[in-house]
Design a protein that fits this description.
alpha+beta; four-stranded antiparallel β-sheet
């Protein structure tokens, strides 16, 4: 009997799980064996020390024999140190290799025309090197070749011998050695030689005209007419870049401000919703129709704003707009519907629906519906006020942490200075 696809799938999943378990078991055993063979603890009581210059190593040991329990111990094992004889042999071996190591782009130490690569540390040996030159004005202790000084001294292709003294130490047994190098001026191309000669010619002209207010540049050199200009740096690209950056920042700034205004409008509409319901409920209880109550609230608000007794509120601005629409001949149902849509919040859309329902079915239960809606709105306003308070508290955390840090620094710094 052939198995159904679902049964074959379950069987395949089971085989995959078994294969995964077996693979994990095999890899775990192999890793454990490798860890034992690669252990730093040899023969149970011998630790592998770090090589020369590799620094100290920390080992976590478990010691048995102090009692019934095993005792964990942290041990810092220092690096291997040279004996005096080993250090001397190592220095001699380094001196054999050193001429090739410091050449840089020079062919040999007898033909040094560029900077030398004077190494200060040899990692493979754990040895530090300190260099000194007997002609630091020409070749300093960092290996830098001073070409201008060579020219001023008139050193030509014969070069000049310079002794480099190197002090090698592995920490305990320092020794000093000496290397001799021959420094020569760099090899210049024909174009570089011409440019250098022209610069020297300009210097001579400067000396000749040093008593005048201006310097007249030569009109020709070696039979060739010359023209001069100052290097110009294009300011168009940076200024244009600033303009583009300003435009982008203005765009995003406008977007952010618009977003903030939208969020502020939503918050204000949500906060004013219970007040609007409360006033409508009171006026309906006094026997007014919904249209009369609406117009009265809108007109009172407009008068108070014009008299400077109240600031503008988004919801009352929309109510005044709706009142003007109804006076202009717009049907009440459509005006209330547009009011809810302009406010943009679900609660105001619901209010517009209730007022439209009142127009169609009468105002028998409208007051009770508004009272129920007002109760829910006040609860939502409490939750919103609580959330705004939590957000304000969160925003205050950063300044509080900054003040706390400043106070801690003011207390800790004098204490540490006194301790030192």
């Amino acid at each position: 009997m052939r198995k159904r696809p679902a049964e074959r799938l379950h069987a395949w999943i089971g085989r995959k799980q078994i294969l995964c378990l077996m693979a994990g078991l095999f890899i775990g055993m192999a890793a454990q064996l490798w860890q034992r063979t690669d252990s730093a603890l040899l023969e149970g009581d011998t630790l592998v020390r770090g090589s020369y210059g590799q620094g100290d190593q920390t080992y976590s040991l478990i010691v048995e024999g102090f009692g019934e329990k095993e005792v964990p111990v942290e041990m810092v094992l220092s690096e291997r140190m040279y004996t005096k004889q080993e250090a001397h042999k190592t220095y001699e071996a380094v001196m054999v290799q050193l001429p090739q190591l410091i050449l840089g782009n020079n062919p040999s130490l007898e033909d040094v025309r560029q900077d030398l690569n004077l190494l200060t540390y040899l990692d493979s040996y754990g040895i530090r090197l300190r260099w000194e030159s007997d002609e630091p004005e020409l070749l300093d202790s960092f290996g830098e070749l001073h070409v201008q000084e060579l020219k001023q001294r008139g050193i030509g292709e014969q070069g000049i011998k310079i002794s480099l003294h190197v002090r090698m130490t592995e920490g305990n047994w320092p020794e000093e050695y000496e290397l001799s190098v021959c420094v020569k001026p760099p090899v210049l191309t024909q174009q570089e030689q011409t440019e250098e000669a022209f610069v020297e010619f300009l210097k001579s002209q400067d000396e000749l005209q040093s008593y005048t207010a201006y310097m007249k540049l030569p009109e020709e050199y070696q039979g060739q007419s010359l023209k001069y200009s100052l290097p110009e740096e294009s300011v168009f690209v940076p200024v244009m870049g600033l303009g583009v950056a300003g435009a982008v920042l203005c765009f995003f700034g406008d977007q952010a401000r618009q977003q903030n205004r939208t969020e502020e409008r939503k918050r204000q509409l949500a906060l004013d919703y219970p007040e609007v319901l409360s006033r409508l409920t009171i006026f309906l209880g006094a026997g007014m129709s919904i249209r009369t109550a609406w117009d009265k609230i809108a007109l009172e608000y407009k008068m108070m704003v014009e008299q400077g007794r109240r600031r503008k509120r988004y919801v009352y601005e929309e109510m005044y707009e709706t009142s003007c629409q109804m006076k202009g001949g717009v049907p009440e149902g459509k005006a209330f519907e547009e009011f809810g849509r302009r406010c943009g919040l679900q609660s105001y859309m619901k209010l517009g629906g209730l007022l439209e329902q009142n127009r169609k079915n009468g105002s028998k239960n409208l007051r009770n519906l508004l009272r129920t809606e007002m109760t829910d709105a006040f609860e939502q306003r409490k939750h919103q006020a609580r959330r705004l308070g939590e957000e304000a508290g969160t925003k205050l955390l950063l300044p509080l942490f900054i003040l706390l840090s400043v106070v801690m620094v003011m207390i800790a710094v004098p204490a540490l200075m006194e301790f030192k």
